[in-house]
Structures are given as C-alpha cells and as structure tokens.
Design a protein that fits this description.
The protein is an alpha+beta fold. 69% of the residues lie in helices and 16% in strands. The radius of gyration is 15 Å and the shape is flat.
Length: 89
C-alpha cells in the first residue's frame, strides 16, 4: 500500500514538473504533445497512469503519447527533419 502511494505520488509530481515546463514554453491553453521516456515510465504502469491522469487535470490540452519514447530515436528524428528543412530551403 505504501509503495503504491509513493509510485502514484511520483507520477503526480512528474506531471506537476511537466506542467511547469509546458507553461514556460507554450501559450496558455495550447495543445502540447507530451512523450514519456525513461525506465520509470517504461517499467511502472502506476507511475505512467498517475502522470497521465494528473497532467490531464493540470493541462487538459496535453496530448500524451501512450508509447514510451526512445530519446535517441527522438533526437535522430529531429536531426533528420532539420536536415530536410535545410535541403528544402
């Protein structure tokens, strides 16, 4: 019971941090794509669920991708897009 409470609290705290980051980077009420990444999200459904539930309350326009993102693949995709934009310019 204590462990479940800690894991749910961790997910809620991560959502609070995400909301702070979103609020500092985007206009109020903006739709924002949110990806989850890392071992805690990958291996703990309770943290993922608490994160998604709390972020939906804190920033209802957040579009949370249910799949766990691989940061290296995300960086590769961004680099590929930037290269395509340079090529097209």
């Amino acid at each position: 019971r204590l462990a479940r409470s800690i894991l749910s609290g961790a997910g809620s705290e991560l959502a609070t941090l995400a909301r702070i980051a979103i609020a500092n980077l985007f206009e109020p009420a903006s739709t924002v794509q949110v990806a989850m990444s890392g071992g805690v999200f990958r291996h703990c459904a309770q943290v993922r669920d608490a994160f998604a539930e709390q972020l939906a309350l804190l920033w209802p326009q957040a579009a949370i991708n249910a799949e766990i993102a691989d940061p290296a693949l995300g960086a590769l995709d961004l680099a590929r897009r930037a290269a395509e934009n340079l090529h097209d310019a």
